[in-house]
Amino acid sequence: MENFVYNANPGRVIFGSGTISRLGEEAERLGAKCVLVLSTPEQAGQAEDIARHLGSRVAGIYSKAQMHTPVDVTSDAMRTVERLDADALVSIGGGSTTGLGKAIAYRTDLPQIVVPTTYAGSEATPILGETEGGRKVTKSDPRILPEVIVYDVDLTLSLPVALSVTSGINAIAHAVEALYAREANPIVSMMAEEGIAAIARALPLIQANPQDRGARADALYGAWLCGVCLGSVGMALHHKLCHTLGGMFNLPHAPMHTAVLPHAVAYNSKAAPASMARISRALGGGEPALALYDLAKRLGAVMSLQDLGMPANSVGDAVEQAMSNAYWNPRALEKKALSELLELAYRGDAPA
Ligand code: NAD
């Protein structure tokens, strides 16, 4: 075995079905008396439902969270935090709501309880990406890491199939890149392989029956493991490409990850053979890039960046930007090969 360094993030995780009923207890454990509940506008009803579990500890609900954590929304939410003199945050939703909670915690150090309802995994990381003036800036800080995660499988049953698929593959992307990360280590790799396998076996069952609680539990468990991977080691080419494309063209987060991942894996496949063997095993065999492409396509995901909103003739600019301040990657970044990669993803063709 090679030498390694393993950094664990602290955190308390409650996992299961019906676990939302423990929200009051968890708030009490944190000593919270004045909780602000956060959500997107679409999940305002769900936020009201779960607020009931907090009883008299609820100070208010702020349901204007948005994708990519715009700083003006955070500033608006901060006024509510101050007006209510909130002493804790409960974020219910996907990465967008979790992002708002993290942005407030970064500014106030308030404790956070996150109730994730997608597979984005943000709840398990000390990372925050905020947007201001069309630029997304990422920071990492211990204040950003949520204190408690309450995973309630029941709250994921309403996640539409299309978003379940792309959100699940977004999670797989965290684990894939953790396997070939510069800081890879045996513990995180174990979680990564288990996370990929849990999600890959759950997604077809969720597509067949979105109310399948066993499959939903597998997917949520896998999403947690993949989120831990994202929060523990550095990411590589795939995340750099998605960060670039998301920032330049405001493409939808999880669908964009789904369309890019098979191509990033193909690009790195020869440079990271041991990781590829583990990805293949987790996916049930086959060449990993093609297996990921086939899985996503079979589940109905849109595989063309053009169809997701990437403008024509923009590959060159995207490659230039991705190569500036590049992340570490197992294979050196080569302009021609990256252009070919993005051209394939633009058209939605299979990885080469
Ligand atoms: P999202 O949070 O934007 O959710 C998409 C939509 O689905 C929203 O309208 C949401 O309200 C709705 N939704 C969520 N769960 C639902 C449910 N169970 N039932 C019905 N509707 C539901 O999407 P996402 O993909 O989870 O998050 C994307 C954002 O998270 C991006 O801004 C991304 O940058 C960020 N992110 C950050 C990290 C990190 O570590 N910092 C990690 C992953 C993602």
UniProtKB/TrEMBL annotation:
Per UniProt, residues of the Alcohol dehydrogenase iron-type/glycerol dehydrogenase GldA domain are 10-152
Enumerate the spans annotated as Fe-containing alcohol dehydrogenase-like C-terminal domain: 165-346
Tell me the Pfam families matching this sequence.
ADH_Fe_C, Fe-ADH
| Presence of keyword NAD | yes
State the protein's name: Maleylacetate reductase
* Family affiliation: Belongs to the iron-containing alcohol dehydrogenase family.
Give the EC number(s) under which this enzyme is classified. Answer: 1.3.1.32
